[in-house]
Amino acid sequence: MSIFSRPVTMPSAASALPGRSSYSYPIPATHRVLGTALQAPYPAGYEVAYFGMGCFWGVERLFWQLPGIHTTAAGYQGGFTTYPNYEEVCTGRTGHAETVLVVFDPTKISYQDLLIKFWEEHDPTSGMRQGNDVGTQYRSTIYTTSTQQLELAQTSKLTYQNSLANSGLGEITTEIMAAPEFYFAEEYHQQYLDRVPNGYCGLKGTGVRCI
């Protein structure tokens, strides 16, 4: 992913790039690693969660390696432009964050477990950046798909904020809200670090445990 600076101010709906009515590229049918369907419908009883932690390449690998994960996918979320492509997102004029869809079996891994991974594996205090990746697309996000997920996310934020404060770190800037539309990223972004095992991964936590 790019180390070059992108806009750090969100566009307005009026100033955002115009969208389109459908994808301008094909979405792969299956996960390269897990062999499961990338798109819904998913098995009954499974839950869907969305996380943004900077560059989605490393984030997707982080989650697909966990037990109880059915499928993952890289995508764009939280902006104004409908069906954006990567080049448009990189301009900062769509408003989207790079996020990862996580479909999981709650009998094998809990949403709380996913939240712990989320908080500990990136810096949620850094605003519109993660490490060298600067821009609105790299902001920290938790997009929830149920009232219970929203409540757990908000509670875990308060808990982790206390841990960060005790370590002398700043305020969490993570955007937590009900999930907006998720747009699958292009095929070459899906399971990128399986395609390119030594490829770029910008994940770096603060070193503070989420307890």
Low-confidence stretches: none
Mean pLDDT comes to: 96
Quaternary structure state of the chains depicted: single chain
Q: Strands of the largest sheet, in order across it?
A: 7-6-1-3-2-8
- Summarize the main sheet: 6 strands, mixed
Distance between the termini: 31 Å
Count of separate structural domains: 1
Principal-axes geometry comes out as globular
> Which percent range fits the helix content?
10-25%
Strand content: 15-25%
Q: What is the CATH H-level superfamily?
A: Peptide methionine sulphoxide reductase MsrA
CATH T-level topology: Peptide Methionine Sulfoxide Reductase, Chain A
The number of helical elements comes to 5
Domain Peptide methionine sulphoxide reductase MsrA: 49-201
Family: Belongs to the MsrA Met sulfoxide reductase family.
GO molecular function: peptide-methionine (S)-S-oxide reductase activity
EC number: 1.8.4.11
Provide a brief overview of the structure.
One of its GO terms (cellular component) is cytoplasm. The protein is of the alpha+beta class. It has one domain: 2-Layer Sandwich (Peptide Methionine Sulfoxide Reductase, Chain A), CATH 3.30.1060.10.
Give the helix/strand layout.
Elements: E1 47-53, H1 56-64, E2 69-77, H2 86-90, E3 97-104, H3 111-120, E4 129-130, E5 133-134, E6 140-144, H4 147-166, E7 175-178, E8 182-184, H5 192-195
Parallel strand pairs: 6-7
Antiparallel strand pairs: 1-3, 1-6, 2-3, 2-8, 4-5
